[in-house]
Write a structure and sequence with these properties.
115 residues
Length: 115
């Protein structure tokens, strides 16, 4: 199932879903998402699923290399900016809304190499 199918299923079951495709590596898009939730949904956010990862192509490209043979800045930033930093930012922004409404669930999904 894709994002739109998931949103449709939520709506069919009586819920509200706002499907959004965004680039987690771009802080402005992350901020815009939470501003959209604040305005379009009056700040109501029940569930946040952090499931973004940007390191797969980099890991494929550097497979078989020793870690000292890779660019340490590119490796660190690519793997951690989306998979760690922006999961934290999204959780922080979501928690502000959820604390205000006294409910909510944040799910962080992680795996080795984006599998």
């Amino acid at each position: 199932a894709n994002l739109l199918d998931c949103a449709s299923e939520i709506k069919n079951r009586g819920g509200t879903a706002v499907p959004v495709i965004m680039d987690h590596a771009k802080d402005s898009e992350v901020q815009s998402l939470f501003e959209r939730i604040s305005t379009e949904l009056s700040g109501k956010l029940d569930v946040l699923v952090n499931n973004a990862y940007a390191g797969v192509s980099l890991l494929d490209r550097t497979a078989g290399k020793k870690f000292w043979e890779t660019d340490p800045i590119e490796m660190w930033d690519t793997i951690n900016n989306v998979g760690l930093r922006n999961h934290y930012i999204c959780a922080s922004l979501a928690s502000r809304l959820m604390v205000e409404q006294k409910s909510g669930l944040i799910v962080n999904i992680s795996s080795f190499g984006g599998d």
